[in-house]
Every structure is written in structure tokens, then in C-alpha cells.
Amino acid sequence: MVEVLKVSSKSNPNSVAGALAGVVRGAGSVEMQVVGAGALNQAVKALAIARSYVANTGMDLACRPTFADIEIDGEERTAIRLLVEKFAARPVGEQAPAQTAGTSERGTGQAQPSRPPVDARGTDTGMPAPATAPATSPA
How far apart are CA 13 and CA 15, in angstroms? Predict the structure, then answer.
């Protein structure tokens, strides 16, 4: 059974991140349950912080959100559950596998917009995004 961490809008993201990292290190996965935008905000902050906590161990975290109907004080509510799982991080400097020309990550055959380069933690490197089309000057 996956442990469930309930996160509220008043939760401290650093505290949640510590609990998140600790449970994932031991069990491999954890679920965060949130109700409301403020709680979701704190949970996402905690996930970003927890990624930095586990980065030095060669681990990274992935998140899969789902909806869940729950009962709070006898009232039916819709919660968001964020399943957080660990996986092996790609070593710094190692590139993702190259895409086949003309295909996207989703396999739709349509080009994806270019994104700025990021480091192993997903942080923007400050480098400009690669050009996807020649620049044109206004007529």
C-alpha cells in the first residue's frame, strides 16, 4: 500500500519535501493528496524541493496526477492525488536519446516547440533555445 501525505494550503513545502523524500527513498513511491488550488501549489513546491533533496543520490522523481472522490466532514469532494515515484536520474551532461527526424515525443509527426536547454535537475541553463526556423525581418 502506498503511503498518502495530505497537503493543505498551510503546509510548509520544506517539511512536506523532507517527508516526501524520506518515504520515496524507503518505499519507492508516495502519494500526495490535495484539495484546492492552494494545497496543490504547496504540493508542487514540495515536489520541486524534494527533487533537489534526492538529486545527489542519483535519483529523480516523477509525478502522475489523478482525481479522486473523497469525503471530508460528511461532504463529497474532488481531490487531486499526485503519485510520486523515484527513477534513476540521467548523469549530468548525458543527453536524452535523439528523436527520429519528423517525429515528436508524442509520436504525432508534428514538430514540438523548442525549449530552453536544462540541466539534470530541469533548471534552465540560461542558454537560448535552439532556433527552429530562420528569422525573418519585418517587411
Answer: 5
